Give the backbone structure.
Amino acid sequence: MHFIFRFIRSLAADFTDLLFPVLCLGCNQSLGANEKVLCTHCRLTLPETNQHQGPYNFDLLNKFAGKVPIRFLASYVYFTKGGIVQKLIHNIKYKGQKEAAKEIATWYGHQLKLKSDLFNETDLIIGVPLHKSRFRQRGYNQADWIAEGLSEALDIPTRTDILKRTKFKESQTQKNRVERWENVKTVFSIQNHVDINGKNIVIVDDVLTTGATIEACSIELLRAGCKSVSVLTLAVAHR
Ligand SMILES: [Zn+2]
């Protein structure tokens, strides 16, 4: 009996190794038994924004002023070029580290749950969708995995069948703000109006940059009858 238990436990450990990287994504050192994604040292150096603890950062919300009413907006960590967060985001988007995205999102979710009552009235968490051809290429939508981690930690359901990105657009990295907005305009549609009617929704993405994508999603959700839209992202460009 004892042997069987040990066997199952070692199988479970092997399985966990498959899901989580065994090296720290920040410094490439081996992770300890209780460490996931980042070693303790790297995790402590994460440039957390603490935006959810206040005072409230209106500069962030001003990205959307006069365009779409956003109830609440917060990001977990600051993104700086060459820093640990850039490494994490790169791994999450381009190196298949979807489980890492979920794990980091649960860290954030636990903080949000402890320090903020903003989510008591939240009904649904939705990841910003990828177009299906991009999804096929990548094999997953990192925003859905972030939404999954937040959903678990905050105990709020998440859905992937509400918002759909309808047109594929080329990479936005070389475009300015106006071009980006033109680029994402009207590319989102709502699949399931009934399920969002009167609901408080949180939209989730990996990095908040110009806000154009979030803006386009929010407009569609509000137009479709949801009560409010809030935004959570893993990272945001430094102030
Ligand atoms: Zn490390």
In short: Residues 119 and 209 are 23 Å apart (CA to CA). The two ends are 57 Å apart (CA to CA). The chain has two domains: 1-45, 50-237. Residues 24, 26-27, 29, 38-39, 41-42 surround zinc ion (CB under 6 Å).
